[in-house]
What we know:
Blueprint: E1 15-17, E2 20-21, H1 32-36, H2 39-47, H3 52-85, H4 96-114, H5 119-137, H6 152-179, H7 182-204, H8 209-236, H9 240-285
Antiparallel strand pairs: 1-2
Helix pairs in contact: 2-3, 3-4, 4-5, 6-7, 6-8, 7-9, 8-9
Amino acid sequence: MAQRFGGKYSPDGGQSGPGKPVARQRLDPVGARANLMFVPAVVVLFTSLASGATGLALGAASAAVLTLSAWLLRDGLRAAAAYADRKVARRPSIPRKLFSSILAGAGIALASLSGDGGLIAAVLYGAVTTGLHIMSFGLDPMRDKGMEGLDTFQQDRAQRTVQQAESLLAQMSDAIRRAGDRRADARVAGFQATVRDMLRTIEDDPRDLTSARLYTGVYLMGARDATIKFADIQARSPDDAARQKYMSLLDDLEANFAAKTQKLLQDDQGDLEIEISVLRDRLKREGIALPQTSSPIQEDP
């Protein structure tokens, strides 16, 4: 279905809410190069049909391995993009891109054998393919990022909360599509961007989780339920009054989420100022004098 472009000169003025621009859509990190990795499996399978029983079996095995490699690559690219997007993140539990490279090499080695190639040639083809795959797509993140000094138990709780919240946001997206209302769809996208700002803040500092649970749980479930009801009404018979009430609800919720996110950030800065103040007093008692500033925190020029 065609979709109208947003922006300054669009009919809606590029606004998803009061004074707020339309949220930028998140791009899927899986690009054309990764999707093209499914093509070798199809080519190998069809070229091995006339290679006899042994060649056909090896070709089918090669196609299966290459397909699994391409599938792992897609997941690995998404995991690496999620890792890069966060300030605090654990390395992927499964190195999908590395396994994808190894499987790609194994698949090409099997394809070489299916064409009556020798074992040495198959190993060389496989090794070269693995190396080229790694050069093209890189390796998975191999270390945690920003985890020093964090409570891993709290981090796990925060991660589960974020996953549950993302599930609710996905349900909102699925529901609003049934309404067939582009303005409502853009408005939901703007609300989701604000919610994700809070989720990123919680991921960066899991200590914020307790004070934000009401928002990531009750408020977000209420927004999901309201979206489902609105979509059902609009799907049966478009109702301008229902749309207005729904938009007002999203405006109120978004304002509350934005205010809470700002409060979390201010609390974090306040905690840092207290810690610096305590550190200054401790160093002073130890006889170490530090230059006094008008504020405990100074920005770099």
